[in-house]
Amino acid sequence: SGRHGRLERWLFQRAAAVICISEAVKQCLVEGRLVSPAAPARVRLIPDARVVARYENGDGRRVRSELAIPPGVPLVGMIARLEPMKGQDLLLQAAVGVAEQVPEAHFLVVGDTMAGLHAEYVPQLEALARHPSLAGRVTFAGYRDDVADVLAALDCFVHPSRRGAFVSVLIEAMAAGVPIVASDVDGIPECVGRDGTAELVTLDPSAIADAVCRVLTEPGRAEAMSAMGRDRARRLYDVGPLARMTEEVFAECLDQRPP
Question: Sign of dihedral through CA atoms 62, 177, 193, 251?
Fold first, then answer.
């Protein structure tokens, strides 16, 4: 791979340890010859972490009231930077199919462009939201810092990203107990698992729509996904244990330094 510069290669080759947040990231480093598969001890897998309790008791009612979305209205949403890689366009294309099967559903897009990048993407999303089946059903909420409350307002969280090394907002959604529909790419399956915590789908809007409809119309499925997500977030991604694992890597590296 020619994507990495000489300095980057030099630094990786001399690192006492390399921490990867997912197996997908490790594979990218191996394929790019930044780390050697022959030296597995140097590569540690430590996923991203969150203060899980921070997302367990959000005030979804406040967010729904602010956005004029009544209680009981099925609310499907995503939280991410506005850029093509994140797949908001796929969500809105899938929303047409969801609206046909669940006519009362509403859709929430949270996020903004970063530093003016991908400004042309916003009009594309707005055009998709003007589809006749979505009239009055899509809310663009822009940047929000009350993520826990936004998640608590949702009935289904969708993350149709075209790439994803390891998606932190999925940890937050699991901690909040929101059923997830996510793309089956890169490190996303590592994050949410393949045990039913999330619906993993292709990047086909029809497949996304069908998965969302299953969540919205099968209460038992949604309740099970919620419970499994909360459990997975607590067991695997709480910041305390993962911070200690990171400290142990640093301590081992410092112990190996020559006197």
Answer: positive
